[in-house]
Amino acid sequence: MKRILYLLVFLLPVAASAQKLSESAVEDISTKMATQFLKLNDPALVFVTEQMSRSGAGGLEVDKTMQDLKKDPAALDAAMKFLYQYSDCNRQTLIANLRAMNVSSGNVFPLATYIVNKNKNDNKALVDEKNELYRIGAIPKQISVMVAPPDNQNQAAAAGTVLQGTPPANATGQAPAAAPGSSPAKETINTAANMPVDTRNWDVRNVFNMVKPDQLLEFYGKENVELRDAVDFEGNDAGKAWVVYPDTENEMEVIFYKDSTKSVAFSREEGKWRSPFGIKPGDPIEKVNKVNGKGFRINGFEWTNGGTVDSWEGGAMDKKGVMILFRAVNSGDPKLYDKYTGEKKFSSNDASLKKLGVIVEKVVFRTYQ
């Protein structure tokens, strides 16, 4: 019995330490990922960055996140998970990739152990997802260049330049039509099938990287952008907004603020835009719950800030500049609907919300650049 107790006393600290990385390892992997990211054509980091953007783990400005992962532990864990996914969830392949990134030899095995232990229950799902992403062309197998910020963000803002580089292919498997600074083509012709193919660039990250309206006009074409009056969630005057593809299913509203921040809003359910977290108008509240990783708090309908998220409750979208307005599709049951209206707040986990058919009405991303 004593031997068993001694063994437990010895093994428990070892098991605990396996779930925590040293500061040295965190600094090392963060620095090395940033270095590989800035090379612009590293296949592993293109994959990781694209997955960070698709999942929302990189926030609204994934380029900045990738250059200083140690500041965001959740983002660092996600980046390491996607590196593991890129390595086909194989420990030896992961170790080889860590070494190829020039991770210090003393940190390779602790990092590999941490990553494998943290994600081993998701091996099959991660491998299947990777295969599907490549199959549909959501992530290109052949890498040329990817988005990366200039060395000095302030210089870029002062010069009014757009971040250079072509993002990876979009979720439909089509490569971007143009690099920032040139207008995306309206359409091209597939001569083989004699059918029009939409090659417009639907990656919202292009907008997040802009600092002034002129860049929006140049990138999407003056003929596709209009300046209009804007309103907030409450219907109050919000100044002027630049509207891309106005009065179409792909309408996108962009407001540039004096402090160089901006808001990007969507309210059309059929839009093609690819944005962080994958949330779009028309999505059920259950999907938003899943993406956030936990329930969140919503303001009662038909009241001040009605139907908007009051707090993400520390979930994946907390403090990431994401604002969502919900509406109830099935509000015909007065007794049930009254439960969620007025001066109150309710949890997104409430089972009765499914009967109301609560969906996303509008999504707004507020960037900090």
Per CATH, the architecture of the largest domain is: Sandwich
Shape category: globular
Q: Report the CATH C-level class of the largest domain.
A: Mainly Beta
- Give the neighbour order of strands across the main sheet: 3-4-5-6-11-9
What is the average of the pLDDT values? Answer: 79
- What is the N-to-C order of secondary-structure elements (H for helix, E for strand)? HHHHHHHHHEEHHEEEEHEEEHEHE
**How far apart are the first and last residues' alpha carbons, in Å?**
61 Å
CATH topology of the largest domain: protein yfey like fold
Helix content: 25-40%
Unreliable stretches (pLDDT < 50, length at least 5) are 5-18, 142-193
Characterize the largest beta sheet: strand count, sense, and whether it forms a barrel. 6 strands, antiparallel
Approximate strand percentage: 15-25%
Count every beta strand, where a strand is a DSSP E run of 2 or more residues.
11
The tally of helices reads 14
| Computed CA radius of gyration, to the nearest angstrom | 23 Å
> How many structural domains?
2
Structural class: alpha+beta
